[in-house]
Amino acid sequence: MCGISGLFDTRGLGAFDQRLAEHINNIQAHRGPDEAGLHLEPGLALGHHRLSIIDLSTGQQPLFNEDGSVCVVFNGEIYNFQELVPELQQLGHHFKTRSDTEVIVHAWEAWGEACVQRFRGMFAFALWDRNQGTLFLARDRLGVKPLHYALLPDGTFVFGSELKVITACPGFDRQIDPLAVEAYFSLGYVPDPRCIYQNAHKLPSAHTLTIRRGMTALPETKAYWDVRFSNDNPITQPDAEAELRQRVSDSVRLRMIADVPLGAFLSGGVDSSAVVASMAGQTSTPVRTCAIGFDNPDFNESAFAQQVAQRYGTDHRLEVVQSDDFDLIDTLAWLYDEPFADSSALPTYRVCQMARKHVTVALSGDGGDESLGGYRRYRMHLGEEQVRGRLPLGLRQPVFGALGSVYPKADWAPRMFRAKTTFQAMSMDTVQAYHHSMSHLRADQREQLFSPEFLRSLGGYNAVEVFREHAEQAQTDDPLALIQYLDYKTWLVGDINTKVDRASMAHSLEVREPLMDHELVEWLATLPSDFKIRGGEGKYIFKKAFEPLLPHEVLYRPKMGFSVPLAAWLRGPLAQRMRESVLSERMLASGFFRQASLQRLVDQHLAGSFDHATALWMLIMFDAFLRLGERAPA
User: Fold this and answer.
1) Is the pLDDT of residue 408 over 60?
2) Lower CB density within 10 Å: C or N end of the chain?
């Protein structure tokens, strides 16, 4: 795992200052502390920080082809590189390393832009072809590895693994994008391809970007892959269970290739437990497993992780996080570069910190919920869809809309009585309803929070448009498949993968996700939806497949999640920090918020009359982002 960066002169062959190239490369040295490499030529600078995983003695980057005309900087892993090497050798290419990186340059020579279709892995890379005068950027299919870019006013194209590479460049305009702010306060992150800044972009997952000299504007990105839900596989359930186990095993096997210590996260949930069981079946030595426990029993899954560790005789490490472990706010703001409100970033940071003491590579169970229907919200959405399918929108809008407007917000009540959000969702179409369920702050709450001036700057834009744009590409009428597709494009990339990438790279730890293998994802998309959710049970086929390998109480217990006691923190030890952040001069001067709304959120939460923990945490993290901007060099 690594950090990549680069500068490209779109207007000519100007020489870049080596000190600037070194600075933007070194600003993300935490991603790869083992080695640093830099290549400069007229009009180009490529930088790389390496975390050595495969071929420790060679494989340094930037890496070139035989005659030096093609050069690449690469972050990630090409898991099938050993299969591609002999094929490329037969085409006349010569390899001087044992690294997966070298496969990229020769694959480019052999197949051009189509090379990405041959790679099975997680990757973000930039490749320079001097003979063609082409800079080619690519990102993996599920968006595991990040890639940011911008075109500066002087014609310099800059890219980097993290947004801080872009903001470190003189001349970059840190103008905040109002549409990104609206999206953040809806989803808790800024979804691709937007960044918090108007002039910066994220390369979307499964996309490429080709840059050439003489361009005056950024070209369109190109998609090279998409998941298609056919849901028409005629396979029987017993055969599906056996094939699923085998496919997971194959995906795990590919991700166990490493020349450094390797282990796994073991949360005690279904997905990480299945990954560990698959690992244990493919090695004669104990699997190294790492888990985080919480001193608050309502948030502690460590006993379930211990069951799996004992069953497979793993070398298990557990660390307990105190319930007041919230001193990472400013650290997270720096790591994520833009507002990011998933509070599970705190324990994710800690488990990566702990794992790095014992391993350099860790396998995770991320991606299983999205592919296999594991989230409770999926089951709730399907229930709502049954009602929406029976009543026309013209009837639902006035009836349920009125109920949603008058029903009180009852965070304190048992879940079955919290009907306000459900009534509101029932008055909406399918895509709007799912966006509504995924929103941290609903549209009416955002309207109350934002100042009239800021609302005018949005020009009527609503973050639901992010979901609508993706829904148009989904090519499925299956209710579950549609929201799975939306999660692949938004939640999985923008939240889960972003969270894990920054938290792991902060500690120079490589995390690999077997359940995000694109061939596994493609196969799961062929299975009927009732293989995924049946009788109210999520991940139905997955749990059945792993019944022979995992304890029943691990497979069928209620999903807990990787959460923290936010509401209690914000009424207790974080109360002062909350006041200072949410009501700071920075927040008021930003022009985004109504002062009265900020004060109301603080007062009502501290009084215990409402639970505004989600909104307040979003505001705290937004203030931390603004504070970071104040300290940035002009």
Assistant:
1) no
2) C
